[in-house]
Amino acid sequence: MTLDPENWDETRAQGHRMLDEMFDYLATLRDRPLWREMPQDVRDHFKKDALPQNPQPLGDVYGEFARLVLPYAGGNLHPAFMGWVQGGGTPVGMLAEMLAGGLNANLGGRDHAPVAVERQVSAWMRALFGFPAGATGIFVTGTSQANLVATLIARAEALGLPSRKSGIADKKLCAYASAAAHSCIARAMDFAGLGSDALRLIPCDEHHRMDIAVLKETIAADRKTGKTPFMAVGTAGTVDVGAIDDLKGIGEVCRAEDLWFHIDGAYGALGMLAPEIAPRLDGIAEASSIALDFHKWGQAPYDAGFILVRDGEKHKAAFATPAAYLRRETRGLAGGDFWPTDYGPDLSRGFRALKVWFTLKAYGTAALGRMIWRTCELARYLEKKIRAEKALELCAPAHLSIVCFRYRASDEINAGIVADLQEQGIAAPSMTTIGGKRVIRCAIFNHRTEERDIDALLEAVLRLGKARA
């Protein structure tokens, strides 16, 4: 029994309708609220647990999507979405996802063109970050997984490859990151069997960067107590304020102490595409590994994380596992000199690389770099407007494209303002805590955002704040 349609013309017509309506949806984002809360009947609809036994016409299924899913999406396509570090996606990326779905390629390995596409994107990243020819990279779900991959490679390097069989035993490994590092670094330590307590959180200096002097002192103290430092993580774009650690300084410490130097560049690493930002990432070329997301500043559809490793042999040694059913042949489909499953945790891997390949080729790195810098200019525009308004308080400088501020009132009022903005569909900032106070956090990453969106946000903040105060 085939699952292909009996009538290809009907399916083609329905597919064209779906594609056209998604283009219409993208073209008219400003005409609708950013976010709408699901009404109870919609929530109840998705709680039905009876499996659909009988077929339904494709048009009916699509109608259900258009009626019950599309109107209640997360809103990150909208130009006024500024709550979390999420890109806005593109029509090109959407089309590439359609092609990838149609091809249904498994990129665990074997000899086929999709693997070559992923390898080409890896080569482009080697060039962008100044890594040597022997560096390797693969796509993963996101930087959370990429940071875990880096931790596992660093662990294998510290304990030796036999530890892949014998385990970590009682080795007291410890790693280092700034107090502003993303929580997924601690989770990576947990998942790697080292325990989140093995991550030393180094305080930040007045510029929200890891304090290098304290890093050195902490490493020395750990060595004196019999622990084994093995990795330090620099952050290129902290989640709260977008600060960039002193990557060059951390790299020098890692070389002196023989530590794996990993960089969590979830969004900031792609700042290398912008000539105005690249100098602030000085030292990134010396990293042992870099984690980044193309679905943030790169605007690729979710998900598109990536891990780049300087020493490809160490990368492979940490993950490759011989198996008879995965034997490499010298000819035929089971050939190929690069199987991505040897470099990460997954054998079943989708064609994530295609949407990034399309994005880089269709827009070009120069245009993407200008878009990235434009989001930083908008952050400075927002910063300037906040400084000029007495009712508002700037809580951290705009290092890149994140701005944190508050209405001069209580934490409760500021939280209420943010909830009102979201529920009224005006804009979607988020909340974080700086200096013990809850603040409004605007992360500007959408290529569609303009000054008018910033103005509308501030006008609403002032109006809602005044009403609540």
Summarize the structure in words.
There is one protein chain. The mean pLDDT is 96. The chain starts with 7 loop residues before the first helix and ends with a helix. It folds into 2 domains: 7-35 and 74-89 and 365-469, Aspartate Aminotransferase, domain 1 (Alpha-Beta Complex), CATH 3.90.1150.170; 105-363, Type I PLP-dependent aspartate aminotransferase-like (Major domain) (Aspartate Aminotransferase, domain 2, 3-Layer(aba) Sandwich), CATH 3.40.640.10. Helix 5 (113-129) packs across helix 12 and helix 13 runs parallel beside helix 15. The longest helix is centred in the last third of the chain and has 23 residues, at 365-387. The protein has helices at 8-27, 40-45, 58-68, 91-103, 113-129, 143-159, 163-166, 184-191, 212-224, 247-257, 312-317, 352-363, 365-387, 411-423, 451-468; strands spanning 136-140, 173-178, 199-202, 228-235, 260-264, 289-293, 305-309, 392-396, 402-407, 430-434, 437-443. By secondary structure, it is an alpha/beta fold. Strands 1-7-6-5-4-2-3 form a 7-stranded mixed beta sheet, with helices on both faces. Strands 8-9-11-10 form a 4-stranded antiparallel beta sheet. Strand 8 and strand 9 (402-407) form a beta hairpin.
CATH superfamily of the largest domain: Type I PLP-dependent aspartate aminotransferase-like (Major domain)
What is the helix fraction of residues, given as a range? 40-55%
Count of strand segments: 11
Multimeric status of the protein: single chain
CATH class of the largest domain: Alpha Beta
Count of DSSP H/I helices: 15
Task: Name the shape in a single word.
Answer: globular
Largest sheet: 7 strands, mixed
Low-pLDDT sequence parts: none
Q: By helix and strand content, what is the structural category? A: alpha/beta
Tell me the fraction of residues in β-strands, as a range: 5-15%
Order of strands side by side in the largest beta sheet?
1-7-6-5-4-2-3
Number of domains: 2
Q: Specify Rg, calculated over alpha carbons.
A: 24 Å
Mean pLDDT: 96
Distance between the termini: 66 Å
**CATH architecture label of the largest domain:** 3-Layer(aba) Sandwich
